[in-house]
Predict the structure.
Amino acid sequence: MSRIGKQPVKLPAGVTVTVGSDNVVTVKGPKGELKESIDRDITVTVNDGQVTFTRPTDQIRHRAMHGLYRALIANLVKGVTEGFKKELELVGVGYKAANTGNLLDLALGYSHNIIFEVPKELKVTTVTEKGQNPKITIEGTDKQLLGQVAAKLRSLRKPEPYKGKGVKYSDEVLRRKAGKAAGK
């Protein structure tokens, strides 16, 4: 058995999970509602505050999906109760971030500013303190969408290994390289 797949997902107070036809799981909670389509081979049962997952056989495909769908539903439950948050940091001289609603205006050292539209499901805030790098905070209930948007923002100017300039996650540790002068 999958060690992750056989663990039940415990439902906190105020969260309801319903399994619809064609295996679509809907999770409703205080922060909203999320849906996930689950493979027809995996059986999802909801009883007395727990969601359990069972697979029909020990095929590699079934074993792989068993733990995957359990983890996805656990993320949905956490999303509608607590929510998810990612923080990005802009490292570099002249790098700036400002937002008006869900439009993000980034100055990342290019000849032009980059206007990035964040999906309406996510909430974005920017903070610029004196002596600190500008920070972008993205919050939302959908972990997959949040990670995808954060990765897209990071890809606009990836951190380079010599000076560390670029857009990085605030908890990311960059591996730095020695420059040309270190070779002598």
Q: What stands out?
A: DSSP finds two helices and 13 strands in the chain. The first helix runs from residue 60 to 81.
